[in-house]
Amino acid sequence: MRVLVVLSIAGIVLLMVLGFAAAARRLLDLRFGTVRTLLAGALAFGLAGPIATALAGAVSRDDPTLTPLWFLILAGACALLAAMTFLAVTEALVPTGSVPGPIELVRSLRGRVSRSRRYFAIVRILVRHGLGPYLRGRRADLGAPSGRRRLARSLRLALDDAGVTFVKLGQLLSTRPDLLPAEFVTELALLQDQAAPAPWAEVAQVLAAELPGPVDEVFAEFDRTPLAAASVAQVYAARLHSGERVVVKVRRPGVEDVVERDLDIVARLARTLHSRTRWARAIGVRDLARGFAEALREELDFRVEAANMAAVAAGPDRSPVRVPAPYPSLCGGRVLVMERLDGTPLGAAMTGGQEATDAAADRTDLARVLFEALLRQIMLDGVFHADPHPGNIMLLADGRLGLLDFGSVGRLDAALRASLQRLLLAMDRGDPLGVTDALLEVVPRPDVIDEQLLEREIGRFMARHLGGGGPAAGARMFTALFRIVSAHGLSVPPEVAAVFRALATVEGTLTRLAPGFDLVAEARAFAERHFAARRDPGTVRRLAEEELVALLPMLRRLPRRVERIVGAAESGRLSVNVRLLADDRDRRHLTGLLHQALLTVLAAATGIMAVVLLGHESGPRVTAQVTLYQLLAYNLLVVASVLALRVLAGIFRRDG
């Protein structure tokens, strides 16, 4: 019986708490977290009794016009006001969503522990490679080249030791001379994506989960010794039952969890830098981190790589350069089965002596074929190999070239390809104004830019690098162009950065393959062959006719519209509608000012009310010394102080 009574009382208390919580949230007309709302209801329930007692004690028991019901209603209203005040104050101090709830906190606890361990491991790696002083706030000695080279080498060794994600990050940074000094770019370019092979037992589990059947049934032969092993995947040689020789690329077991954990660290670091430093916001560090994460996740999904291979191979006239064909029925997220190309990696062929290339075309011809194939992919097809280093290029037995590893592929839409084509044509004509206009179409245009200065610097760039400077000029061309883009506050989109990265990478490959290869002359020759028709009078006339046909509907309507505008102006009915605050940034700025002003008014009004109530000695007594009005005044003082401090914090805050 006693247990039943206790349960009944607990049920009534719970219902009253829920009722207070629901009423407070409904009156405020806002959504709050469950825990915060329940705490407000519990606070209201706890205050309802003492408030009712205080009110009842202050009124004469002999007054027949008042009943206990009025005391309960008034006490409930005061308790509800306290709950609403609690919700409003806690929302001002700790906005909803700024602190994870208990369920989210429990879910993320395991991830936090794992991430903390990874943080400590990375810090140990950095300290071991001599980067500890920089972690403690010491400024890097970047004034002298020797200091930059020393720091760059320590950074490369640390990234290499930190694992696959940071190796890939270093490789990406090595292609961004607009962000890093030349010493860092050169040093980070030495990062190699290599690792010891994983045990066959672990690889066999991946194959069993991804293939349509056991390995021995799917393949007639399967060599269990890997041809190559990198930090993301390792490659095996096999033969199908139909007799075709294939290559099987298998993602290393467990690499996805490591990459996701490290990408989370990179994203958090990028958000911290973005919020605290101006230089990070200037270069768009959050967008860089986001693009890097997307590219790395795509590289981990071999289905994306198979689609990339098919897209690159789908372009016209691929006879000089071969792309291995994938076998879609055998490909999955962690396994890629593709055609095996017979030949020698270009890097090994270039170091194996001249006899390694005697059976093929001349080195210069090979360089020309490779460069034209990449330009065709970028300028015409819109799908291109973004990492054409010597390890990803094969010298085939029939004298042709083969492209491998399509985990990193760039894509350009038609509008961006047209802008790049105009950029190349303007460079071929030696037109700085045309290059400047095309460049501003390729990159996002900032709000404020000195176009005259940009045009002059582009002109000096073209005179230096496109004025017959030879191959040495071409070796510095992309770095110089990146510097100009960065100096004028132009942020390079990820797809455009992939173009420059591919061109810079193939430039190094061509320099090794055919020393003296004139990159600039070949690019001009490519533009002459493929885009010269646009300057033909017949082509220009045809394009003008097509544009005129497209403009005819608008031209037919133009006289009527002009007549309506003139008529409205003559009769005084002409008006112009301007959408104020159409820009989201302006709306956010004005909203912030209004919030600050509103909080200031509320703080002042609340403080004045508190002072007025403190001056009243009469009223119901809560204690022998404090009246109910004074108690409310003290609470209002607290609310006024909170609002005033929030306004002052917003005024004194300075972005880093």
UniProtKB/TrEMBL annotation:
<feature type="transmembrane region" description="Helical">
    <location>
        <begin position="628"/>
        <end position="649"/>
    </location>
</feature>
<feature type="transmembrane region" description="Helical">
    <location>
        <begin position="69"/>
        <end position="89"/>
    </location>
</feature>
<comment type="similarity">
    <text>Belongs to the protein kinase superfamily. ADCK protein kinase family.</text>
</comment>
<feature type="domain" description="ABC1 atypical kinase-like">
    <location>
        <begin position="191"/>
        <end position="433"/>
    </location>
</feature>
<protein>
    <submittedName>
        <fullName>Ubiquinone biosynthesis protein UbiB</fullName>
    </submittedName>
</protein>
<dbReference type="InterPro" id="IPR011009">
    <property type="entry name" value="Kinase-like_dom_sf"/>
</dbReference>
<keyword id="KW-0472">Membrane</keyword>
<dbReference type="InterPro" id="IPR004147">
    <property type="entry name" value="ABC1_dom"/>
</dbReference>
<dbReference type="Pfam" id="PF03109">
    <property type="entry name" value="ABC1"/>
</dbReference>
<feature type="transmembrane region" description="Helical">
    <location>
        <begin position="6"/>
        <end position="25"/>
    </location>
</feature>
<keyword id="KW-0830">Ubiquinone</keyword>
<feature type="transmembrane region" description="Helical">
    <location>
        <begin position="37"/>
        <end position="57"/>
    </location>
</feature>
<keyword id="KW-1133">Transmembrane helix</keyword>
<dbReference type="InterPro" id="IPR050154">
    <property type="entry name" value="UbiB_kinase"/>
</dbReference>
<keyword id="KW-0812">Transmembrane</keyword>
<feature type="transmembrane region" description="Helical">
    <location>
        <begin position="597"/>
        <end position="616"/>
    </location>
</feature>
